[in-house]
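Request: Mind sharing a record?
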Amino acid sequence: MVSIELVALDLDGTLLDSQEQVSEANRAAISAALAEGVRVVLVTGRGVEAPTEIARDLAIMLPVICCHGALTKDIQTGKTIGHIPIPLMYAKPMLEFAEERSLDVAVYIEERFYRINTVRHYMSDMRGPEWDEVATFDGLPRSAPTFLRFLGSDAAEAVRERFAEFPLHFKFERWGEFEECAVTSREATKQRALKNLCRTYGIAREHVLAVGDSRNDVPMLRWAGVGVAMGNAEPDVKRSVGRVTATNERDGVARAIERYVLHAGERARSA
């Protein structure tokens, strides 16, 4: 078996349990991998703040890949390594459409989320310090946004119908009854950002273990030498990837690391 040099982990539904916590087993497995000299990187659809805090808590030193691959940030220096925003010519009419129709939408600009003050709080992190409420999007910074989030099935369906012809990447995800459509540049994907980061460190894809649960994780999981879907992933995600670990409530990340990194290393040393 080829040795693993880098482990790429999605956050929600993967490393984090339903309480948005890292289990002791996952924490121990990551620590053991780091002790073996294996690099670990967090790859998430969230903004910079949450993965940065989690990475520091787990003593992960690599940059974090955020915003579905649209932003890569060096958490040690604060330097932006990669940023692929949505051109304003596409973002502006989408935000205007959402505001006119009173659709629930959030926009991520200059590493902050903005939402109209009437938008529902669909998740706990929407009350976090990186979120701001505004009366209108007119007064926002004029730089191109990193990504947009259309929240709830009504907003997701509306953007699907109205802007399907835009040359952007529409990422539809569902968690229970909640549906979201994240919109990024077509070039912004987890797989591409991870590939670029691995190139920086001279790591071939064959030496990468990637673990995730969502449809937008599939290209990354299929690109990695060892891609593993979570047990709580949708059936089509599991079929697309092939390898499946336990759920995020049963330490699926720890089991994947133990099998493909730690125990694989032990087998190689005893061979």
